[in-house]
């Protein structure tokens, strides 16, 4: 994944200042531009999806989604199955 992002000019690897074995990732100017664009698209999609809701309903939705996020995080692996087994797709990522 990182290789693809680097190849597309969205990130660059920079040597870690105190650990020669490690690299830091930084967004390039194009990466920053695309990130901002994605944030704008996300806000527009959220506004469209929740546009029919009133203020109280949007607040209730935010509260419920926060509770769901907390419950998923509490499983420890992010997949929400409560088994703490991780995501098997991670083992197949060969792109970096």
Description of the molecule:
With 96 residues, this protein is mostly helical. The chain is built from three helices and two strands, in the order αββαα. It has a two-stranded antiparallel sheet. The longest helix has 22 residues. The chain is flat and about 50 Å long. The N and C termini lie close together (5 Å). The C terminus is likely disordered.
Instruction: State Rg.
Output: 19 Å
Q: Classify the oligomer.
A: single chain
Helix-strand topology string = HEEHH
Instruction: State the end-to-end distance.
Output: 5 Å
Shape summary: flat
Class derived from helix and strand content: mainly alpha
Spatial order of the strands forming the largest sheet: 1-2
Rounded average pLDDT: 85
Specify the helix fraction band: 40-55%
Number of strands: 2
Described by strand count, sense and barrel closure, the largest sheet is: 2 strands, antiparallel
Descriptive labels:
two-stranded antiparallel sheet; mainly alpha; 10% strand
Short description:
This protein is mainly alpha-helical and 96 residues long.
């Amino acid at each position: 994944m990182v290789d693809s992002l680097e190849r597309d000019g969205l990130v660059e690897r920079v040597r870690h200042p105190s650990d020669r074995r490690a690299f830091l990732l930084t967004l390039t100017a194009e990466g920053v531009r695309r990130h901002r664009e994605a944030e704008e698209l996300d806000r527009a999609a959220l506004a469209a999806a929740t546009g029919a809701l009133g203020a109280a309903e949007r607040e209730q939705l935010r509260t419920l989604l926060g509770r769901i996020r907390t419950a998923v995080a509490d499983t420890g692996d992010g997949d929400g199955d409560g088994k703490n087994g991780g995501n098997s797709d991670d083992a197949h990522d060969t792109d970096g």
